[in-house]
Amino acid sequence: MLQILQTNTINSTPWTLADCILRLGPRLAKMSITELAQQCNVSEPTVSRFVVAAGFRNYTDMRDSARKEKLALKSSGFHIPETKLSLVKNEPREYLNFFGRELNRTMTDFINNADISLFDQLAQAIHHASRVFIFCFSSSRLIANIIQTDLARYGKIIYVPSTSDEQVIEAKQLRQGDLAIAISTYGYFVSKFSATIDIISNSPADTALFTQNPGIPETYLFKSVYAVTKTNNPITGSYILLLATEFLVRRYAETIGDDC
């Protein structure tokens, strides 16, 4: 929903609906489509079209998603047990020590076990592809923006469709010689936007998954999988994938950039 706010004009219908839904938060789980339409001053068909464009199957799917989010709002939102998250309020120093230990352990594991050849393979795949598209969602967009911005300095243009509609449109236009990269930090994007992933998987393009979660069940849908760690540690957020991305673009710059 935040993405919809960022990519639509203020007070447009998509912007108004996204703004209303975000303000409702978990209360949406108890609302009918009629109630939401009235709350947002739009028609029910307008709500139906909006939720499909937002990546949900229908209104019930979106409402069920809100209900699940309400049941585990803190733990799912921050990828951390609530017993540890409560330390932020009650024992902030203890929380910082806990998080620091987890981050240090995860980063040390990445540094000691990073497969350099894996990064080189991805860098070469990006370099040799006629066109490169990155498909992602939410926090993974930061990862995509880093790759897009840094590689543009070397004349490598990366296309990053913004909305779910644009992703479907561009996925349908993939052709042989293209490289389609799905970035899914934890696996949410791959599972939630399965229809888009299916289009990408069935396209003639080379396909790749870039993730910090090697346990994503849908890895079989991609020709190449670049899991930057051997174990997933969601507690530390996307720091490891961010570190891996910074290494990837710098590796590209030093090993390929001068030859562009």
UniProtKB/TrEMBL annotation:
Source organism: Lacticaseibacillus hegangensis
PROSITE patterns linked to this entry: HTH_RPIR
Domain of life of the native organism: Bacteria
Record domain HTH rpiR-type: where: 1-73
Name of the protein this chain belongs to: MurR/RpiR family transcriptional regulator
Gene3D superfamilies cross-referenced by the UniProt entry: Glucose-6-phosphate isomerase like protein, domain 1, Winged helix-like DNA-binding domain superfamily/Winged helix DNA-binding domain
InterPro entries: Homeodomain-like_sf, HTH_RpiR, RpiR-like, SIS_dom_sf, WH-like_DNA-bd_sf
